[in-house]
Amino acid sequence: MISYSNNCILRISDFDCYDRLSPAGILGLFQDISGEHAERLGIGYEDMLKKDLLWVILKTGYTVERPAVIFDRVRSETALHRPKRASSVRDYRIYSSSGDLLVRGTTQWAVINAKTRRLSPLSGIMTQDLGEEAPPEFPEGISKLRDFEAEGEPLKVCPGFSFKDRNGHINNARCAELASDALNPAPDEVIKRFQIDFIHETTAD
Fold it and tell me: What is the pTM of this model?
């Protein structure tokens, strides 16, 4: 396991209209620290692209422990666990400036070939000594979401240019925004647990 931490100030855009840290805001924090950590490990976007490889998220989820405050200076922590053959788990914790745990999260990552778009094995990609393994943030892992019957009319969206990330996908934080739009939570409805399973590549084209 390799750990990394950084500090940042929570922006107004990280919160919803009721001043709650939004799903998109939380996934944005995860995305920033994981990208920064990957760069330091030599497995960032450009380093991987030179090998015709891309990191992709298979699953992501989190639980909210305490409400956050706009403009608070928070500390984000991430831990990259020893990879399996085709996927790797990265955990997250976000702490307030007073040291309170705000959010616990985890993501399951994989690598695809940038040309064939097929999964690629992780062996040899992370050459660092990962040291001793620590218990994962969620020992039970990220279970597959159960099938369910949709209620009412589905949210229909035509993704545009601003939805795209560097891989040409709809950015995972954008997917969280769409989920929030579909839920349309009331002022007294708080999203305490959130999860997205990415079944296949989602592009904006």
Answer: 0.89
